[in-house]
């Protein structure tokens, strides 16, 4: 405890967001937090080739160790404890919740009562089909089927923890029907905080500032514990005190993705240097992914890294402009290339198609909607006040503000209005909302869009019991994984709102299985 | 030859500059005295002339009385006094938090909550236009020292992701940063 406190200050984490200009383009991108960069300068334990020597004495012993305090880790901890195991959750950051607690709280549910009430026909099969299509059929079919079939179950599980959802359901890009439910506060924190409450009532300790550095194995490969650092001060690799924790039943890896790991992500995709911003929390780094590979986990599609197409270049990280783009611009409005004033992609295509298309233009796109199209945007005032979205009395003014040729812009808008009347988008075949209205009633609103690193689809291989599969094609005894660290569920592209459900479905499975 | 002389001159210039800067830190860094009374400003701050000789006697003052002048006059002490000082001026001594032991006990969040209440904190910042940092998506029970440091400048933890402009009380006085 004492040591913990000594290392509690988090000066290094303080943001040093800078702005830089992308060569040849007007895109300004927030440089990733310095924390991510400095972490990359040091070699994690996992990079050392020698297998770690088992300690003579373990400092503590427990049935199950879960690494990571996001959706997946907490779901695993709750299930394992309820199945009778003693559990501890390790979290390297000074706060719990990882990306889950900063997430947008949008949850894909196939066949929810909310859909029924609105007369929307949906099924697990249709969700499966959508996920496979976006995933370019690179998905591991048994895993994605599990997620699709259990989406309703996972949703109801969160409701049983006390999570409340809004009435409305959203139609996100790549989904064939509206099916995404939003938490009452539009944030994953609504789920994580209820999970944390449950964890507390079950008497599970969440050890913050506790950094898992090495997976310890018996000579036969069974995972029996971890080398950790207590009182770790992210991202200072020299901080913290080494301890060894024994896990009688095993370890659940729920450490999330590596979108903020500039070193690892730019090895996988050299375009993703420090010049590209990310929506993720600074601790979304890949040391445990690498450590899992060191102990023989099979890598799956690690270079498939997703950029979110809806983020704004006019603010840092995820920001708030994406809410405008995702809920108005892409759905009730249009997205244009400011150089031409024309649409250039189906605004509801999957994330990769959209992000690639925007990047290809070489500069941020502009999305726009009229006063009727922004009705679903819950925090419009805030987005306007921050100056990320802007309001205009006429389309001419809007065009002038973003340097868009006004004649073509007006043509684009009138074309869209015609498609709407005809019930078919003749250019890109975009899905039409039943409540869509022509873009006509001022004021008009606009926001820029420029992609940021958002999700790492790839990771380590698991089976439907959340067991980590080794290079010998068999489960590594005592090693489980769930959530963003596991690969294969989403294939090439993750659909929006499908991560929450994936994390909860496989988190719960991991917890149930490891406690057996 | 001339070149060398220039080099030596530049080099010794740099050295003496560094030395001068160092010497200045020695002069301007206030000493730390655990025996000083909370409001006995000059016990520590005399050497660097932070407290002018004709300043009213501070010895019996508390923070509220200091701020009667110093919230409007220069030097403005709102948001600039280190938390160690605001505590001291409110009658909280070193050992109230750090105990009587050597080395002093490290302070954790529970210790903060032995005086401060969550309700008060929530209330104090509820009108913050950007966000109520005491009731964020992380809930109300974060560790205080994510933002508030007592013996060094505070920081805005939220800004590891956000771009808030609100000020965390109390970033330390500039001169004391040299400590
Ligand atoms: C801004 C944002 C918005 C999003 N919105 C949505 C949405 O609305 N719907 C949706 O479906 N998906 C969304 N996603 C994606 C989704 O939130 C993530 O994929 C998901 O939260 C991952 O959960 P997880 O439990 O796998 O990992 P995380 O929640 O990221 O948790 C992993 C934890 O492990 C910790 N950790 C990592 N390494 C170590 C180590 N070595 N030792 C100890 N601890 C470690 C991390 O610090 C972190 O706290 C969003 C993502 C972001 C970034």
Overview of this structure, please?
The complex is a heterodimer of chains A (516) and B (179). Chain A has two domains: 6-100 and 193-304 and 454-514, FAD/NAD(P)-binding domain (3-Layer(bba) Sandwich); 310-450, Succinate dehydrogenase/fumarate reductase flavoprotein, catalytic domain (Flavocytochrome C3, Chain A, domain 1, Alpha-Beta Complex). Chain A is built from 15 helices and 22 strands. Chain A has helices spanning 2-6, 34-41, 71-82, 113-117, 124-134, 141-160, 189-201, 262-268, 287-294, 321-329, 351-361, 380-385, 395-401, 406-422, 498-515, and strands spanning 19-21, 28-30, 60-67, 87-90, 106-108, 165-170, 180-183, 205-207, 210-217, 223-230, 241-253, 299-300, 305-308, 334-337, 342-343, 365-370, 389-392, 444-449, 452-456, 459-460, 467-469, 475-481. Chain A is elongated. Residues 1-41 of chain A have low confidence and may be disordered. Chain B has 179 residues and is mainly alpha-helical. Chain B has a domain at 62-179. The chains are: A alpha+beta (516), B mainly alpha (179). The A-B interface holds A 1-2, 4-6, 8-11, 13-15, 17, 33, 35, 94-97, 101-102, 185, 187-189, 193, 196, 281-282, 315-318 and B 106-108, 137-139, 142-143, 145-146, 149, 152, 155-157, 159-163. The structure holds flavin-adenine dinucleotide. Flavin-adenine dinucleotide is lined by residues 67-73, 90-93, 98-100, 102-106, 188, 211-212, 254-256, 279-280, 283-284, 287-288, 318, 455, 483-484, 497-500, 503 of chain A.
């Amino acid at each position: 405890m004492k040591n913990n406190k000594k290392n509690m200050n988090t000066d290094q984490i303080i943001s040093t967001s800078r702005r830089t200009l992308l060569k040849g383009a007007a895109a300004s991108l927030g440089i990733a937090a310095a924390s991510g960069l400095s972490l990359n300068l040091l070699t994690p334990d996992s990079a050392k080739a020698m297998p770690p020597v088992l300690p003579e004495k373990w400092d503590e012993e427990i049935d199950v160790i879960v690494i990571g305090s996001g959706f997946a880790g907490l779901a695993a901890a709750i299930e394992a404890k309820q199945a009778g195991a003693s559990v501890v959750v390790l979290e390297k950051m000074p706060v719990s919740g990882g990306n889950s607690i900063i997430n947008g709280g949008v949850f894909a549910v196939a066949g929810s009562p909310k859909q029924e009430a609105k007369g929307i026909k949906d099924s697990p099969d249709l969700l499966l089909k959508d996920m496979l299509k976006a995933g370019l059929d690179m998905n591991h079919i048994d895993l994605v089927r599990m997620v699709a079939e259990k989406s309703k179950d996972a949703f109801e599980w969160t409701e049983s923890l006390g999570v409340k959802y809004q009435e409305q359901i959203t139609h996100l890009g790549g989904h064939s029907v509206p099916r995404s439910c939003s938490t009452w506060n539009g944030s994953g924190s609504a789920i994580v905080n209820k999970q944390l409450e449950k964890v507390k009532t079950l008497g599970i300790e969440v050890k913050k500032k506790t950094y898992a550095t090495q997976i310890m194995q018996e000579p036969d490969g069974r995972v029996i514990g971890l080398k950790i650092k207590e009182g770790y001060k992210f991202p200072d690799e020299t901080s913290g005190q080494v301890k060894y924790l024994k896990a009688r039943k095993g370890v659940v890896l729920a450490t999330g993705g590596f979108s903020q790991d500039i070193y690892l992500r730019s090895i996988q995709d050299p375009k993703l240097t420090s010049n590209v911003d990310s929506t993720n929390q600074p601790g979304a780094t890949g040391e445990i992914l690498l450590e899992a590979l060191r102990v023989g986990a099979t890598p799956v599609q690690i270079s498939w890294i997703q950029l979110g197409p809806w983020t704004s270049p006019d603010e840092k990280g995820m920001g708030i402009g994406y809410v405008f783009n995702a809920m108005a611009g892409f759905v009730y409005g249009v997205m244009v290339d400011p150089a031409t004033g024309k649409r250039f992609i189906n605004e509801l295509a999957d994330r990769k198609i959209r992000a690639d298309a925007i990047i290809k233009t070489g500069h941020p796109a502009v999305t726009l909607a009229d006063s009727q199209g922004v009705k679903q945007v819950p925090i419009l005032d805030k987005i306007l006040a921050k100056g990320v979205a802007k309001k205009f009395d006429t389309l001419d003014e809007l065009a002038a503000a973003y340097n868009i040729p006004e004649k073509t812009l007006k043509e684009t808008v009138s074309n869209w209005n015609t498609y709407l009347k005809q019930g078919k988008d003749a250019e890109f075949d975009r899905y039409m909302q039943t409540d869509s209205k022509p873009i006509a009633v001022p004021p008009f609103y606009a926001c820029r869009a420029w992609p940021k690193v958002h999700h790492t689809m790839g990771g380590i291989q698991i089976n439907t019991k959340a067991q980590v599969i080794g290079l010998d094609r068999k489960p590594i005894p005592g090693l489980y994984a769930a959530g963003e660290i596991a690969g294969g569920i989403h294939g090439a592209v993750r659909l929006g709102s499908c991560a929450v459900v994936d994390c909860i479905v496989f988190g719960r499975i991991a917890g149930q299985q490891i406690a057996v | 030859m001339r070149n060398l002389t220039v080099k030596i001159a530049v080099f010794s210039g740099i050295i003496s500059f560094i030395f001068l800067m160092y010497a200045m830190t020695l002069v301007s860094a206030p000493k730390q005295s655990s025996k000083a009374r909370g409001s006995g400003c000059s016990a520590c701050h005399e050497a660097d002339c932070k407290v002018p000789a004709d300043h009213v006697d501070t010895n019996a003052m508390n923070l509220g009385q200091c701020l009667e002048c110093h919230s409007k006059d220069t030097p403005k002490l709102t948001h600039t006094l280190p938390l160690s000082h605001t505590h001291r001026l409110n009658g909280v001594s070193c050992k109230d938090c750090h105990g009587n032991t050597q080395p002093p006990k490290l302070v954790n969040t529970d210790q903060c909550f032995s005086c401060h209440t969550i309700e008060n904190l929530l209330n104090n910042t509820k009108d913050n236009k950007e966000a109520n940092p005491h009731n964020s998506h992380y809930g109300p029970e974060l560790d205080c020292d994510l933002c508030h440091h007592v013996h060094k400048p505070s920081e805005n933890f939220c800004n590891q992701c956000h771009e808030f402009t609100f000020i965390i009380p109390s970033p330390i006085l500039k001169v004391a940063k040299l400590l």
